[in-house]
Structures are given as structure tokens and as C-alpha cells.
């Protein structure tokens, strides 16, 4: 059996010969043989990611390795309590990452929900209904209005067949299909009118077709294979955090080596050096960071869910805020996803169909009545909900009539149909005959403007009916051309009184006008695109629609600006990878693009260093959704495959929701940056305390368990408060972050160093005072423990926003900040006053003087930090 992709270019007879089949279909015996050879007409399941592979991924972190080393050293030195505490922290961190990242990649499984359960097939010349899984290449299937196509097939014959392929090709309007003539072999898929494809829907007509591909060999199956082949990459946030952790680990190792050399030079015992090494290893790891990062993103998930954006992949919350380019499908994303009659051109004027235009003038009522009568769509109201059935172009005319106060059901009852001349590709129009309320008979015609105009010798004007002159014809054709250049689909309307409902009456009609239909821009899209432009984010349109349609919509939305290019899918296919990488810099609209072309465009942008968000809802978008740094699918009309491939699902199907999500993503990153700044300042202070005491020849002021206590409890609660603060007031006025930029930019790293030195200096001062005042090492260590803990808690104010508005909003709206300070401070007091806990942590109960010294010294970094902020605002 040939697997050639040029079936569309063959005649029906040639296709039957190639498939060794007949117009009456295969015999049951031959079909069974082929089924055994090619397998069922079903999609293959992709093996899901195993839980083990996810767990191994968590264990590859340098932070985990550092904790493992510290635990091993503690065990070897017989410090089992420290070892147990470190292992507990290790298990907690790995468990958090494992739970949040355990996510099987099941893009292919979504294909199973596209399966068609039953199919009508000709077997040995007889029509039978069977399980669609049993279809094989060479079968002849029967399709009709309302059916879903069960396999890719080459039409053998058809009658007024129209198919919706939007989810596969991106084409917004129904596509007319015919058995002949066959198009050239190089015809792109959206224009292969002799083919019908699996998972598309028949909206009108009927036909028989030869099955040429089943299962994974269909176009839908091929896209599923393409989607599954796209590997998930780590998000920018994950890459940044890993690099930051690596840098911190290297810093800790360098400091540890320095301390070891100093200790050996000072003649310190090996046991003391081992304890210092464990303390340094624990101090270098911000154990609270995984929890803080997860909570920050979880808060973002909750806020997005309240705005109808559902997150499927947690780190994607922040990735959207990093986006530099948003690639978006047109149909149903930038547009409303439903054909709408927007304008009617009458004899002397153009009338926009808008809510404010009604009640409409009589000549417009006449045009809308003809459009509703010469119509095969259905307009139903069920429980207050409007349900439209049939060709979207025809249902758009019904909706326009309904908005004008012409209920289609009432019209059809008052003007009952007496006959029909159905639409055909040869005639390019349809006609219906109706009895009038006055007892007469009229014919209503709807179709291609040029063909309908040929049927007319008169035209309707406000002054009455008159003959059509040459100038009138030129003006009508000019109206038609103008509407077409605006990206509208144009239908002409005409009528006449007749004596009988027959085709012989189809001449000498009265021209009424023509109507322009389009899938209009969705509400709020233009404002969202403008907001993205102010935020330095490019918006690119990737559509399967015609060039002029995509270009017109792009101009209306302000997406296409002077100097921007429009590229056709055929042009994209001809470009090399390097040429495409250069072309995407200036291109804003890509039309007639295939799924492979969408994937190549996204990849080309990523090779330029862009962070790409891809929006789509169709099967043809799935591979690009998966390739993008963040894939965004529509939740209502989106196909299952698109939603499974995406990281974020817009529950309300509104492009404007993505603007909210981008803003939230940026706020999440800002908050994470504040939390990382806070935690790393605190960790650096702990490292410097241990290092400073070692250099000075003192024992380590802090035990490993004390540092774990600080990192897991005292530091974590204030960091969590930072993670849930409101976003900055100008978050959407700033350009996107450099994709290569680190979480902590150089200025922040300097601040981390300054605050780390300040907190460590005050802690060492408290330690020295304790040793000097009492000579008691336990009392001095307790003073250092207290000073460091409260210095870190008070440091929360230094890590918050410099924007006074945000700080005030945080104080009012983010009550958890005050609660965090209270909880952290209370836990620290519990650590020194509750005897069993104090014994485990190795601290003594301080007196009033000790508490006063600790609090005063702990306040110094906070006071200096606020003075610096006040100076910067002046």
C-alpha cells in the first residue's frame, strides 16, 4: 500500500487503482487482511514520564549534593543528631520538588479523545456501520452533515460538501470540498479541496471518500508525533535558580577550603574543623528557598485562577512574566472564533451592523430577510441560550437577522419554503422559493457577488426599483473589491417575484446588496496588544488563514506596524534555518502556516534568545505550544491535544486574560527576586559569622543545628511574606527582563554583600561582647544566635520594594508580612526559653542585658538599610 502524500492530486479513478480498491469498497476478507498488516485506526499512547525519572531529576541539584556531603560528614564524625536533622531537611526539599514536578507528558494521550467511535463504510458494495478502529486504507467511507471524519480520505464524489478544518489548519471559514478537478501535487494542505482529514467536521452536504491514511499516519496523528518529539526544556527560572545555587555552592566550597587551611595553620583539632565544615555547608544552602519558590508560584496560580488562567506546570507561572515574544493563533484567539456579519452594502451606501444601528431601515431589513431565508443554518434558543447549527457563514446571517428583530423561526413560518436550488461550486449561489404572507411567491438568492450580479437586471434603491446600468455594476463590483481587501467574506443578495419554484425562474433578479462577514477581533484584544507593546513584548500572528485576512486583522489590532513584514507559509518553508532566524526579527504576521512551520518559527525565535509564549487552540498548534517556553491553550474551544501540550490554559478563552497572566508572572518574579535577595543575604551572613570567628581564632559561634533552625524557620516566614506581596505599580511599563539576566543583578549582589557583612558584623560583635562580659562560650553563642536571628527578621524591611505605594499596599493588603515577623520572632524566643528545645539547639537562657544587647545590635542593619532607601528616594 502506498503511503504517498499526493493523494489529493490523483483523480478518483487513479486513487482507487493505487489503493487496489473499488468504488464499492473492499471485501470483508481483504479489509481484515489489511487490518492485520497496518493495525487499527487508532492513536498510539506515548509512554508517560516515570516517577523515578522525576525523582532522579530532583537529586541532581547541587544544593542537594551539598546537604548530602554535610550529612555524610556528620555521620562519620558520629554527630548523629546533626546528621538526622540534615537528612530531614534533604527529604523535605526533595519531596517538595518531586510533588510539584511530578507531571507526566501525556500530549499523545489527548489524541485518544479525538477518536471517532463509529463510521459508515462500503464493504462489497453494501453500506455498513462499524467501529472506526477497523477502518483500513482502501476502505470507502460515507460522510454527511454533522459527521466527524474518521480518517484521512480522498473524495470520490461529493454533493455540496463543506467541512470545518479550523482545529487542523487554522482556517476560520468552512472549506468547500469536491471530488474533482484534482489540484496540483504541490498544493498546501489547507487548499487540498479533494481531501478530507481525520477529526474535521462536516457542516453541509455529503460525499463518499477513499481512506488513504489511518491512525498515526493521518495528518492529526503526524502532528501528535511531532508534538511528542518536542522535548520539554527547563524554564528560565529553573535555569536561573540552578546557576545561583551552583555559584553559592562554589562560594561555600571556597570559604570552606579557606577555613580548613586557617584551622590547620592555627593547629585546631580535626573534630572542630569538621564541625565548622558542616556548619558552613548548612549555611551555604538556603533550605527555605524551595518552599518559598513553591509558595510564591502557588500564590500566583491561585491569583491567575481567579482571573480564569489555569496553570498546569508550576514554574510556567514565572516564565510568562519573562516573555519577550507572544506568538498567537488568529482564529478564536485574536478573533471571536465565530463568523459575524459586520457590514451590508446596499445600492447607495454601506451600513455597519452594530447594536446601535437597530431598529434598522427598511432596505436593510429586506437584505437581512433574504439572507435568513436563503439559508440552511439553524438558530435555536434553549433555556435562554442561543444554539447555532450548520455552516458558520449561514448562521452568521441568522444572527444578524435576529439582532435586527427578525426571528429566523418566525420568518420561516411566515414565509414558508416552496422549493430550493441548492448551492453548487458550478453555480456559486443557492436559491430558495417562499410563499409570501400576501399569497405570492418569491425567490431569494445568496451567493458569490459576480455570479449573482449576472442574474440581475434591476436593483433596489431608496427611490424604488430601477434598471442596473454600467456605472451601477462598476460601483457594485468596487464595493465587493473593497470588502474583500478588508479581509471580509462577501455574499451577494437578490430576489424576485416568480410564478413557480423552479430553476427556470433564476434570471432577471433584483439586486439588493451584499453582506461582508468576518471572524471579528475579540473584545479587548487591541488594548492588550498595546499594553504588550508598552511592556516591550512583541506580538506575532501565526495563522492558517489567507494572507489578506490575516493582514487585515493584524492592521485592525495594531499588531502590524510600519516596517513589519507579512510572510506566507510557502515563503517560510523555502527559508533555511539561518534565513528564518533573521526573518523573524521583522516579521509580525505569518499566514497559511503549517504545524511544522509554526514549530520552526518558535524555534527560530528561541535561537535568537527570545522567551516565547505561544497561544493556540487547534491540533495544528500543539507542537508549537510544546516547543515554546510557555504554551497557552484555550480552555473552552481548545482541542484536548492543545491543552495537554500547554503549560497554561485560559478558561475563559480570552486573549485579554493573557495580559493579566503576564502581569502576574512579572510580579511573581519580582517577589521571588526579593525573597532570594533576603535569603541569600541571610545565608551569606551565616557564612561570614563562621568564617569571621575562625579567622579571629574563636570557636564557631553557631552550631549546624542552629543554622538549620534559622534557615528553615526564622528566615522562611519573612521570605514567604515577600513572596506574596502585591506587584510593583509599574510592572507593565518596564521592558522584558534580559533572558540571560540572573535573578540577582550586580547591584543586588553588592547589596547582598553589604547587608551580609552588616548582619554578620553585628552578630560577631554580640558574640565578642558575650565572651568579654562573661567568658561563657555558651552565653556568647546564644547572644550570637539571637542577634543573627533578629537581624535577619528585621532585614525583611530592607528586602521589600523601594516603591512607597507598594510598601503601603503591602502593609495593608499583605497582613501575612506582620504575621510572619510575629511568628518568626516568637519561634526564636521559644528556642531560648523552652528547655527541651534549648537543650537540643545548645543555647542558654539569656538575661535582660543579653536580650537588650541582641535587639539593639540586630536593629543596626535594618536602620542603616532604611536610611539607604530614604537617600535613594531623595
List keywords for this structure.
single chain; 874 residues; alpha+beta; eight-stranded mixed β-sheet; 50% helix
Fold and architecture overview:
The protein is built from 34 helices and 26 strands. β25, α24 and β26 (648-650) form a beta-alpha-beta unit. Strands 10, 11, 14, 15, 16, 17, 18, 19 and 20 form a nine-stranded mixed sheet that branches.
Strand content: 15-25%
Class by helix and strand content?
alpha+beta
Count of β-strands: 26
Distance between the termini: 80 Å
What is the arithmetic mean of pLDDT?
A: 80
- Report low-confidence residues grouped into runs of 5 or more: 103-112, 806-813
Helix content: 40-55%
Overall geometry: elongated
Number of helices: 34
- Biggest beta sheet attributes: 9 strands, mixed
Radius of gyration: 35 Å
Question: What's the layout of helices and strands?
Answer:
Elements: H1 12-18, H2 28-38, H3 51-59, H4 62-76, H5 80-101, E1 118-123, E2 126-131, E3 140-144, E4 152-164, H6 166-169, E5 175-176, E6 195-196, E7 201-213, H7 219-228, H8 236-266, H9 270-284, H10 289-306, E8 309-311, H11 316-322, E9 325-328, H12 330-334, E10 340-345, E11 350-352, H13 362-373, E12 378-382, E13 385-389, H14 392-403, H15 408-414, E14 417-421, E15 429-435, E16 441-447, H16 449-455, E17 456-461, E18 464-467, H17 470-485, E19 489-497, E20 509-518, H18 525-534, E21 538-542, H19 547-557, E22 565-568, H20 569-574, H21 577-583, E23 587-591, H22 595-607, E24 612-616, H23 622-627, E25 630-634, H24 640-645, E26 648-650, H25 655-695, H26 704-714, H27 716-723, H28 746-774, H29 777-794, H30 796-799, H31 804-813, H32 815-833, H33 835-841, H34 848-873
Helix pairs in contact: 3-5, 4-5, 4-9, 5-26, 8-9, 8-25, 9-25, 9-26, 10-25, 10-27, 11-25, 13-14, 18-25, 21-22, 25-27, 25-28, 27-32, 28-29, 28-34, 29-32, 29-34, 32-33
Amino acid at each position: 500500500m502506498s503511503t504517498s502524500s499526493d493523494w489529493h492530486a490523483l483523480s478518483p479513478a487513479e486513487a482507487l487503482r493505487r489503493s487496489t480498491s473499488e468504488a464499492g469498497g473492499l471485501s470483508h476478507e481483504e479489509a481484515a487482511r489489511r487490518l492485520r498488516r497496518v493495525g487499527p485506526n487508532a492513536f498510539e499512547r506515548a509512554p508517560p514520564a516515570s516517577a523515578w525519572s522525576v525523582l532522579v531529576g530532583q537529586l541532581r541539584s547541587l544544593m542537594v549534593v551539598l546537604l548530602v556531603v554535610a550529612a555524610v560528614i556528620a555521620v562519620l564524625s558520629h554527630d548523629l543528631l546533626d546528621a538526622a536533622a540534615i537528612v530531614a531537611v534533604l527529604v523535605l526539599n526533595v519531596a517538595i520538588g518531586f510533588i510539584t514536578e511530578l507531571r507526566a507528558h501525556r500530549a499523545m494521550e489527548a489524541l485518544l479523545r479525538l477518536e471517532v467511535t463509529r463510521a459508515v463504510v462500503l464493504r462489497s458494495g453494501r453500506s455498513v456501520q462499524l467501529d472506526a478502529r477497523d477502518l483500513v486504507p482502501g476502505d470507502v467511507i460515507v460522510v454527511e452533515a454533522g459527521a466527524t471524519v474518521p480518517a484521512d480520505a480522498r473524495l470520490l464524489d461529493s454533493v455540496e460538501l463543506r467541512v470545518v478544518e479550523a482545529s487542523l489548519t487554522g482556517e476560520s471559514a468552512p472549506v468547500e470540498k469536491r471530488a474533482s478537478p484534482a489540484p496540483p501535487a504541490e498544493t498546501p494542505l489547507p487548499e487540498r479541496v479533494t481531501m478530507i482529514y481525520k477529526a474535521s467536521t462536516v457542516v453541509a452536504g455529503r460525499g463518499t471518500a477513499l481512506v488513504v491514511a489511518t491512525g498515526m499516519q493521518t495528518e492529526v496523528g503526524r502532528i501528535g508525533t511531532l508534538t511528542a518529539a518536542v522535548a520539554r526544556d527547563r524554564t528560565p527560572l529553573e535555569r536561573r535558580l540552578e546557576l545561583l545555587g551552583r555559584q553559592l555552592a562554589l562560594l561555600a566550597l571556597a570559604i570552606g577550603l579557606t577555613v580548613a587551611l586557617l584551622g590547620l595553620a592555627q593547629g585546631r583539632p580535626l573534630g572542630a574543623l569538621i564541625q565548622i565544615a558542616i556548619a558552613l555547608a548548612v549555611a551555604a544552602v538556603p533550605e527555605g528557598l524551595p518552599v518559598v519558590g513553591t509558595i510564591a508560584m502557588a500564590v500566583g496560580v491561585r491569583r491567575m485562577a481567579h482571573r480564569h488562567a489555569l496553570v498546569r506546570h508550576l514554574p510556567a507561572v514565572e516564565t510568562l512574566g519573562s516573555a519577550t515574544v507572544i506568538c498567537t493563533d488568529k482564529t478564536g484567539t485574536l478573533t471571536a472564533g465565530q463568523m459575524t456579519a459586520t457590514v451590508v452594502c446596499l445600492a447607495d451606501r454601506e451600513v455597519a451592523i452594530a447594536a446601535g444601528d437597530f431598529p434598522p431601515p427598511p432596505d436593510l431589513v429586506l437584505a437581512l430577510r433574504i439572507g435568513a431565508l436563503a439559508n440552511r443554518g439553524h438558530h435555536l434558543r434553549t433555556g435562554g441560550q442561543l444554539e447555532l447549527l450548520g455552516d458558520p457563514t449561514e448562521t452568521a446571517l441568522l444572527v444578524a437577522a435576529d439582532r435586527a428583530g427578525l426571528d429566523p423561526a418566525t420568518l420561516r413560518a411566515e414565509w414558508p419554503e416552496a422549493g430550493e436550488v441548492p448551492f453548487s461550486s458550478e453555480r456559486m449561489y443557492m436559491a430558495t422559493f417562499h410563499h409570501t404572507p400576501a399569497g405570492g411567491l418569491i425567490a431569494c438568492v445568496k451567493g458569490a457577488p459576480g455570479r449573482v450580479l449576472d442574474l440581475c437586471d434591476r436593483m433596489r434603491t431608496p427611490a424604488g426599483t430601477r434598471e442596473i446600468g454600467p456605472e451601477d455594476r462598476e460601483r457594485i463590483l468596487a464595493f465587493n473589491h473593497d470588502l474583500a481587501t478588508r479581509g471580509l467574506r462577501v455574499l451577494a443578495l437578490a430576489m424576485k417575484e416568480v410564478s413557480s419554484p423552479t430553476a427556470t425562474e433564476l434570471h432577471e433578479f433584483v439586486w439588493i446588496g451584499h453582506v461582508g462577514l468576518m471572524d471579528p477581533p475579540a473584545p479587548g484584544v487591541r488594548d492588550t496588544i498595546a499594553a504588550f507593546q508598552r511592556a516591550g513584548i512583541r506580538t506575532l500572528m501565526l495563522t492558517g488563514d489567507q494572507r489578506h485576512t490575516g493582514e487585515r486583522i493584524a492592521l485592525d489590532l495594531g499588531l502590524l506596524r510600519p516596517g513589519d513584514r507579512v510572510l506566507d507559509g510557502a515563503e517560510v518553508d523555502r527559508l533555511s534555518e539561518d534565513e528564518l532566524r533573521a526573518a523573524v526579527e521583522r516579521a509580525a504576521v505569518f499566514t497559511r502556516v503549517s504545524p511544522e512551520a509554526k514549530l520552526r518559527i518558535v524555534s527560530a525565535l528561541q535561537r535568537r534568545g527570545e522567551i516565547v509564549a505561544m497561544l493556540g487552540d487547534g491540533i495544528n498548534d500543539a507542537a508549537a505550544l510544546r516547543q515554546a517556553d510557555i504554551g497557552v491553550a484555550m480552555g473552552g474551544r481548545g482541542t484536548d491535544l492543545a491543552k495537554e501540550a500547554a503549560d497554561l490554559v485560559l478558561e475563559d478563552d480570552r486573549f485579554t486574560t493573557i495580559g493579566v497572566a503576564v502581569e502576574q508572572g512579572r510580579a511573581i518574579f519580582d517577589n521571588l527576586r526579593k525573597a532570594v535577595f533576603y535569603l541569600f543575604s541571610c545565608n551569606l551572613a551565616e557564612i561570614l559569622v563562621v568564617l569571621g570567628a575562625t579567622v579571629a581564632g574563636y570557636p564557631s559561634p553557631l552550631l549546624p543545628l542552629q543554622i538549620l533552625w534559622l534557615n528553615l524557620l526564622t528566615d522562611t516566614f519573612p521570605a514567604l511574606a515577600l513572596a506574596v506581596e502585591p506587584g510593583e505599580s509599574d510592572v507593565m511599563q518596564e521592558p522584558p527582563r534580559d533572558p540571560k539576566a540572573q535573578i540577582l543583578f550586580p547591584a543586588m549582589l553588592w547589596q547582598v554583600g553589604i547587608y551580609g557583612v552588616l548582619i554578620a558584623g553585628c552578630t560577631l560583635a554580640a558574640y565578642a561582647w558575650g565572651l568579654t562580659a562573661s567568658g561563657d562560650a555558651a552565653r556568647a553563642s546564644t547572644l550570637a544566635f539571637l542577634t543573627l536571628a533578629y537581624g535577619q527578621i528585621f532585614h525583611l524591611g530592607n528586602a521589600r520594594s523601594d516603591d512607597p505605594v507598594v510598601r503601603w499596599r503591602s502593609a495593608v493588603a499583605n497582613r501575612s508580612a506582620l504575621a510572619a515577623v510575629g511568628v518568626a520572632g516568637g519561634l526564636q524566643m521559644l528556642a531560648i526559653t523552652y528547655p527541651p528545645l534549648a537543650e537540643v539547639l545548645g543555647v542558654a537562657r539569656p538575661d535582660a542585658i543579653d536580650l537588650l544587647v541582641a535587639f539593639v545590635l540586630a536593629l543596626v542593619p535594618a536602620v542603616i538599610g532604611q536610611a539607604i532607601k530614604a537617600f535613594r528616594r531623595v
